[in-house]
Design goal:
The protein is α+β, with helices and mostly antiparallel strands. The protein has helices at 3-9, 128-138, 145-152, 156-171; strands at 31-40, 48-56, 72-88, 91-104, 112-114, 188-194, 201-207. It has 3 domains: 25-119, no CATH class; 121-180; 183-214, no CATH class.
Length: 214
């Protein structure tokens, strides 16, 4: 009996056998991974960066001119861009996608635009999946901005900006006007702390029963 063949036949249908690599489903809409490389991290000694290189499929939205509505085509000009993805311990990952420049077929318009990246976060050069993961960590009281930055490999200023938008979405109507509370707090917790420059102070107020930031 060929036990090797038997072992292969009994593998799950979702199992992919590939020496040296793990093939993991991703949320990178339209991205086709053509090559993967490992680089040294220039900012951190003994750290590596996995670079997923590939191309982005042209969407129907990419093919429509925003100026005149005519059809657009790829004009053979490409530009690679890197977007930060998840980190695995000391190893960071980035997606390097080659984007096409689209050109309008209308000779009176002749407008150009770069291909869109649907999986990129709106405000930062990180993936939407990574941004959503950061928001989930921010919603837990056990993580600070610094610890999230170290865990994900995303800069503290970016984490802070994501947190600010999250708080505005949760507690304001239009980004400025605070929402009226559904119920009033029974116990308040107030903590005043010094900011990084040492000349300004901030006050942190929470609902002691729920832990919600007020």
């Amino acid at each position: 009996m060929d036990y090797t063949q038997l072992a292969i036949n009994t593998q799950s249908k979702n199992t992919i056998i590939d020496d040296g690599y793990l093939k993991i489903p991703n949320t990178l809409t339209g991205f086709i991974n053509t090559d993967t490389e490992i680089e040294d991290d220039p900012k951190k000694a003994d750290h590596k960066i996995i670079v997923y290189k590939g191309i982005q499929t042209v969407s129907d939205e990419d093919r429509i001119c925003e100026c005149c509505g005519a059809h657009m085509y790829k004009n053979m000009i490409c530009a690679p861009t890197r977007i930060k993805h998840f980190s695995y311990g000391p190893t960071s990952t980035v997606v390097e996608v080659s984007l096409n420049q689209m050109q309008c077929t209308n000779p009176e318009c002749n407008a150009t635009k770069m291909q869109g990246v649907p999986f990129k976060a709106k405000h930062h050069r990180i993936t939407k999946a990574l941004e959503e993961f950061i928001e989930k960590l921010l919603g837990r009281a056990s993580f600070t901005l610094k610890s999230i930055s170290e865990l994900t490999g995303v800069g503290k200023n970016i984490v802070k900006a994501i947190d600010l938008r999250r708080l505005k979405r949760l507690y304001t109507v239009d980004g400025k006007t605070l929402r009226k509370p559904q119920k009033f707090c029974k116990y308040l917790g107030i903590d005043e702390f010094k900011l990084h420059n040492g000349y300004k102070y901030a006050t942190h107020i929470i609902d002691m029963e729920t832990g919600n930031v007020l």
